[in-house]
Amino acid sequence: MSDTERLPQPATADIDLVTVLHALGDPVRMTLLLSYADGAEHSCDPHGLGLDHLHKSTVSHHMRVLREAGVTTTRVAGRNRFVSLRRTDLDARFPGLLDALLPAAAS
Amino acid sequence: MSDTERLPQPATADIDLVTVLHALGDPVRMTLLLSYADGAEHSCDPHGLGLDHLHKSTVSHHMRVLREAGVTTTRVAGRNRFVSLRRTDLDARFPGLLDALLPAAAS
């Protein structure tokens, strides 16, 4: 994706299981995961993510943890940033993990 | 198991996904999970768990986190305590999760 600017993220082969589990072992970040599970890009607006009760900087912190763990990717477009799940990368790295996690988290 | 004394642990229905992920999002606790993956009971001796480099109280702390999250059960027999994985309970609560986690963690 040379024509797309992205915030720093680990290469697929460098995504670490313990780091991913730590990233997802938090209720706010699990809420974000469920939002991103649709595969679409999401803006960083806390309102659109159902996180109105949190300060924007808190939401940004949680997004950063997810991105640095390799769970999400962030595309930069001017002043906007769009976050999406690295579904293909995670499925390749840890087969079956998201398939097990997402239904369990949504129930 | 009325004839067996166990340390406190959540009922199967009360095992919380985020709490489990938080418990497993730590390298020492992931090492313990891999030891317990054989389904057998294990003593709390750090040496037998390949954790000689850690103080016994540190290992005890990590074991407590796993037990309180519902990942393990601890049977008390006199002065001895034996820890094992709650495989059946976890498989019932979060189908496919351990099946995905254990191979990924072992690789």
UniProtKB/TrEMBL annotation, chains A, B:
Q: Which domain of life is it from?
A: Bacteria
- Report the residue ranges that make up the HTH arsR-type domain in this protein: 9-105
Gene Ontology molecular function terms on file:
DNA-binding transcription factor activity
Q: Which InterPro entries match?
A: ArsR-like_HTH (IPR011991), HTH_ArsR_DNA-bd_dom (IPR001845), WH-like_DNA-bd_sf (IPR036388), WH_DNA-bd_sf (IPR036390)
Record field: transmembrane? none
State the SUPFAM superfamilies in the record: Winged helix' DNA-binding domain
Entry-linked SMART domains: HTH_ARSR (SM00418)
Q: What is the name of this protein? A: ArsR family transcriptional regulator
Q: Which organism is it from?
A: Kitasatospora griseola
